[in-house]
Amino acid sequence: MSDQPSQRRRTVVCIEDEPAMIDLVKLILKNRGFEVLGALGGKEGLDLIARVKPDLVLMDLMMPDMSGWDVYQQMKADEFMKSIPVIVVTAKAQNIDKVLGLHIAKVQDYITKPFSPAELLKSVNRVLDEAAQRERAGLKPDDVAAEEQES
Q1: pLDDT tens figures, 111-131
Q2: Pair 15, 58: CB distance under 8 Å
């Protein structure tokens, strides 16, 4: 195989209650070399994250079995999952929802539906690049949040 260690396929878990949205995310990201695994709902998503420890989680907020915020809180309370970056992908386009997501909950990005393939790719690549920089610097996401609060 020609895969070099630095070219490892990055794994993304997409937690969403709409199968068509999972298929769309898979189509967009697989064409760019990502491995995309879908989970229908929050409980299935948490189980999948625990099994595969992905590089990134894309998550809807409005799901019938468990809200995206509940999934996010459980991830951040779990030693194994708390360092995994999260991008919220949701139809909740109100400014207050975005403020809550980015500044209160500290998700790495917030994308509103409908989104363009370019918008999704830009966000995914930026968040993964930032996570890699933190990892190289030996910082955890909580360390970065603490630094931002101090400034």
Answers
A1: 888 999 999 999 999 999 999
A2: yes
Enumerate the H helices of 11-140 as residue ranges. Answer: 19-30, 42-52, 68-77, 95-99, 117-137
Tell me which amino acid residue 64 is.
P
Question: Are 57 and 13 a contacting pair, CB within 8 Å?
Answer: yes
| Domains defined along the chain, listed by start | 9-150 (3.40.50.2300)
Helix (H, G, I), strand (E, B) or coil at 48: helix
Residue 104 makes CB contacts below 8 A (sequence gap 6+) with none
As a whole number of angstroms, the distance between CA 23 and CA 80 comes to 27
The three-point CA angle 61-143-25 to 5° equals 30
Task: Say how many C-beta atoms besides its own lie within 10 A of residue 4's C-beta.
Answer: 7
pTM score, two decimals? 0.83
In three-state secondary structure terms, 32 is coil
- Residue owning tokens 């999934």: 71
The tens digit of pLDDT for each residue in 52-75 reads: 999 999 999 889 999 998 999 999
